[in-house]
Amino acid sequence: MAVIVDLEAARGKGPQPSLDALQALVADDIAKVNAVILTRMESPVALIPQLAGHIIAAGGKRLRPMMLLGAARMCGYRGPRHIGLAASVEFIHTATLLHDDVVDDSDLRRGKATANTLWGNQPSVLVGDFLFSRAFQLMVADGSLDVLAILSNASAVIAEGEVMQLTTANDTETSEAQYLDVIRCKTAVLFAAAARIGAVVANRPKVEEQALESYGLNLGIAFQLLDDVLDYTAVQATLGKSVGDDFREGKITLPIILAFRRGNDEEKTFWRRTLEDLDQTEGDLAHAMRLMNQHGVLADTMERARHYSALARDALDIFPASPEKTALLEVIGFNMSRGH
Amino acid sequence: MAVIVDLEAARGKGPQPSLDALQALVADDIAKVNAVILTRMESPVALIPQLAGHIIAAGGKRLRPMMLLGAARMCGYRGPRHIGLAASVEFIHTATLLHDDVVDDSDLRRGKATANTLWGNQPSVLVGDFLFSRAFQLMVADGSLDVLAILSNASAVIAEGEVMQLTTANDTETSEAQYLDVIRCKTAVLFAAAARIGAVVANRPKVEEQALESYGLNLGIAFQLLDDVLDYTAVQATLGKSVGDDFREGKITLPIILAFRRGNDEEKTFWRRTLEDLDQTEGDLAHAMRLMNQHGVLADTMERARHYSALARDALDIFPASPEKTALLEVIGFNMSRGH
Question: pLDDT band at residue A16, thresholds of 50, 70 and 90?
Fold first, then answer.
């Protein structure tokens, strides 16, 4: 059980890194962001705040807003602009989640029934559109064309990543490069935008914008890779979904890509049957996990995540020491320790 | 057959109003708008231009872009900004069409198979998101926060209108006021935004912005009312869809609202069975049309449309005579004469 040993080793190194430091630093700001979110998801059309409230108010760590707020503080910003922009980023994130769940036909999100399960696909699509529009209204109220450019570009790239993922879905021949392209677009770009905006509101030089963008981008990639690993290892309570969900849906993630490439002909036939044809029987998930263990693919996916974590860490080198910098660096460690 | 006579009467008054004058005035501009649309729907993800091209390049009258271009010219604008903004408006329109067809589960659009029929709901949702993002990128490139405010507000209201429509769907008790609210939001607001932006790019005073907004809003309401009438009268070739589509889907449009309110108990039972329970048998559409004729509801819907047309016409009064003004006024007449 190479994977388990490896994760245990990572765990041994002192206290678990957590989001506590960042949460404490931005606690007041996050309360304001939540207030803006609640105000701005209002609509005379009652179904909109109902459905939006289900996904927004109910949960999530507010990781992207916290990164934006933390980055703004680290850059010395002391004004009010980061509040609305953090809410805007969360609205974009929530809109993509609503549309994702429709596209993936998902039943559970953060351990709760998805909006599309409760209200159907139709309002999920439309309330996603509404939140997306609200995000842009918040940016317009802020008035920075730089921020508008960053987030409209990010939104286009996210949509491209989602379509890309659709076209590689259930394709065991997907390359690691293609896969990284997908997660960079669909996940990491919004982390990058959130962190970068911290420098933009603080009017910091381009080099700091780029450093924060690189931090967010690489952390975002590592974040998605951890999600992929956790799908095969986490307990349901921690992750809010069942182990093996990705397998059952035939989702091609990095562990699968590595296992397929390293497998012999018989194994490739197994992966094609289960993931391309979605022809699965009892025992297939267990067999899949045996093969993944044999080829050490979860450990290697963790290794890739460690690589991107290192890039994220180094990107912040140009900033002087500060409580905010320490807190942002700890997010990297928190991500790597998730679910353990 | 009161309806037919009424429409015939409208037809008798001289030559049919058309889009020809407006099309001729903005022909060069529209060619440029189409070029921007083609360039900006590009993506390294091949499915995006494929699917977007199917709905964008294939058809539509480009009515909203033409209104923006015509309004800008009428306001004396001679720069290049209206081109990108007209493309932006068309992208927002196309994104809403893609999502609409998913929400309505439509098979045909402008007489062709819908994108969701050809490629499935998933890419239709995501390519809609992509085009929506592209719309905002075009606005950001233009750089006007006023335009960004107008179109982000319009987008939020459109989404609200669509959700509102969802909650009144198949509800025969929907009031005329509720229905007008829906079509104002989901259809007319984008017409209003398109026309208003013509004054914004030309830096005209607020009163002209408001006049063009009122023109667009009232024309947009009349436009949707005509669509509703045409669904029960037009030949398939003209409209690109079958007569009675709205009836078969149980869509509650103004003709239905009027027929239900004016009907006796037996008729109300008929409308509830066919439109709420969607329990329809052969002969039901014919019976529905007999009832609609009896109560004169198509003629009265036309009458309502004439009212909004008059408001649209009067809104342009503050502008001096010009070929552009004449052309914009003719759009109102063109709308009223559609399908005949």
Answer: confident
CA angle at A94 for the pair B156 and A59, rounded to the nearest 5°: 130
ipTM: 0.91
**In A204-337, where do the E strands start and end?**
none
- Please give the backbone phi and psi of residue A192, each rounded to the nearest 5 degrees, phi first: -60, -45
Number of domains in chain B: 1
- Of A103-117, A125-139, A189-203, B318-332, give the lowest mean pLDDT range: A103-117
Each residue of B259-273: pLDDT tens digit? 999 999 999 999 999
Find the helix packing angle between A81-104 and A63-74, rounded to 10°: 150
Q: What is the pLDDT of residue B96?
A: 95
Please, what is the angle between helix A145-168 and helix B47-56, to 10°? 110
Please, what is the end-to-end C-alpha distance for chain A in angstroms? 16
Burial A210-224 (b: 16+ CB within 10 A, else e): ebbbbbbbbbbbbbb
Backbone angles phi, psi at B108, to 5 degrees: -125, 145
Which domain, by its residues, includes B206?
2-335
Partners of A113 in beta bridges:
A108
The alpha-carbon gap from B117 to the nearest alpha carbon of chain A, in Å, equals 15
The SS3 assignment for A113 reads strand
Phi-psi bin for A120: left (phi > 0), alpha (psi -120 to 50), beta? left
A68/chain B closest Cα distance in angstroms: 21
Domain with residue A82: its CATH number is 1.10.600.10
Q: What are phi and psi of A210, to 5 degrees?
A: -65, -35
Minimum Cα–Cα distance from B162: chain A residue: A126
A130/B160 CB distance under 8 A:
yes
Mean pLDDT taken over chain A = 91
Residues 185-244 in A contacting B (C-alpha not used; CB under 8 Å):
none
Number of H helices, E strands in chain A: 19, 2
Please determine, for residue B250, whether its predicted confidence score (pLDDT) is greater than 50. yes
Contact assignment for A126 to B48 by CB distance below 8 Å = no
Angle between helix axes B189-201 and B206-230 (nearest 10 degrees) is 150
Any idea of the CA torsion for A158, A159, A160, A163, to the nearest 10 degrees?
A: 120
Closest-CA distance, B138 to chain A, in angstroms, reads: 9
Question: What's residue A82's pLDDT?
Answer: 97
For residues B289 and B229, give the distance between their C-alpha atoms in angstroms, rounded to a whole number: 11
- The pLDDT assigned to B169 comes to 83
Is B340 among the domain residues?
Answer: no
B125 contacts in chain A (CB < 8 Å):
99, 102-103, 125
